[in-house]
Design brief:
The complex is a heterotrimer. Chain A contains 5 helices and no strands. By secondary structure, chain A is mostly helical. Chain A has a single domain, classed as Orthogonal Bundle (Helix Hairpins), CATH 1.10.287. Chain B has 2 domains: 77 residues, no CATH class; 185 residues, no CATH class. Chain B is built from 12 helices and no strands. By secondary structure, chain C is an all-alpha fold. Chain C has 3 helices and no strands. Chain C starts with a helix and ends with a helix. Classes of the chains: A mainly alpha, B mainly alpha, C mainly alpha. Chains in contact: A-B, A-C, B-C. At the A-B interface, helix 1, helix 2, helix 3, helix 4 and helix 5 of A face helix 2, helix 3, helix 4, helix 5 and helix 6 of B.
Amino acid sequence: MRELLLRLWDSRIAVAAVILFAVGFVTLLLHRNLLKKIIGLNIMDTAAYLLLTSLGYIENRLSPIIRSGETDPALYVNPLPAGLVLTGIVVSVSVTAVMLALTVRLYQRYHSLNLDEIYAMAQKEHGV
Amino acid sequence: MKKTGFLERFRAWDEDRFDLTERTTGDLNRPMRPAPTDRTVSDEPVQRLAAGEMRAFSRIYPILAAILGVVLIAFLLMTVYDLPPFGAANVPADNEVPARYVRDGMAETGAVNVVAGVILDYRAFDTLGESHVLYTALTAVLILLLSLRDAEPEPDPEDVLMRRDGILTTTAALLVPIIVLFGIYVLLNGHLGPGGGFSGGAIIGAGLILYAIAFGFTRLERMLNLKSFRIICLVALCFYSVSKCYSFFCGANGLHTIFSPGTPGRILSAGLILPLNIAVGVVVACTMYGLYSIFQRGRI
Amino acid sequence: MDYFELLLLGLLVVCGISTCLTRNLLASLIIFMAYSTIMSVLWALLKAPDLAVTEAAVGAGISSILLFITLKKLRDIRRKANDEKDRLS
């Protein structure tokens, strides 16, 4: 038990990312408010990015900007996760924008943000 | 509003309807306006749901959510246990690929910032797709919200001028030039330091949005209407595509004699990275401002 | 840096959870903005300054602006619907 806790303490950023991912996931799945669902998805996104970035971090190294002209790879942290996550951040903001537009349209039609109400009204509307 | 305990609040979490002014919590039988269609929608099924199923679900949901979250955390923590420790050297992710990027990146791309070299030279196709994702998202939002346009009359510019808040306009007048200047700095120094097309473009877009909030759209419209917007995005994306697709035709060699890496550390160096940063930044700035404009008034 | 990092991680988790539990949507959005800002500082500590700049501009800036604008838009739609209902009745 002690060993397990120490091991988890060593990778505390990953633990925080896991907790945030679970929080976002639960919000996305079980919350009924559409805007809350979007925020949950955003939290999930950032948690995954946090985990990726923490995997690239190496203690006592510099950020990968070669100021001094030294190109020894043992001096710098891993630049690859940063590049991947940079792509992800911008894609997640695009996804957020599209989801918000869909939410506005749904609200305009059904005057509700509650997914259950929207679902019930849509069912009624299509005679299912 | 009466004070509620944490557990009570957790249990009643489905009741948070959208509202900023008046609270309608617990008002499940609120009369609902039929949607403006030929088929009118009654709120009868909603009431049925509200009466029975919704109440039952609202009790089960938080418990289910808590259980699901705990199980998910447990499973993911089992994976974390097998991850290499945080901050250690010699982890599997730190293999020969990033080592090569760091060792030869500056000589090959001319970029002092290795991340910029990676995303705009080695993996530039990735970034090309990303710019297109951004533009596609903007187009989708435009399609979805364009029908809201004629729903609201444009507010009278004089009216907007009258309603202006003094603190907002003064602060905006002071801050907007600084924000845009900082955005341009971040954009142009993408290969020399942290920043680049995406962050610089987003900062410029935020400056434009602040200007639009404080002074209205009328003045910005002279510069940024749908036509100029389309031309800017088209030219930037086409430039990006052409400058990255030519390597298809010259056998993946690149044209290093024409777009030479130059002297690393100079502002005019790093071959195509600076123009590509500018193209990406312009697209991002236009997209951010365009998204705000569409959401705010239904058109660009 | 160790204590600062721990403080930031704790604040991050607290912000994430309270964003999902807050009932008022406006308050929830403001907490989400704080969450993004904390995340950007954390990325600066993790030696990824590119990510920090981008997250501060995109996550805390543009995303939050879009969410706020959506709230305003929804309120406008609701107000207009109410006005119309009043006029009809």
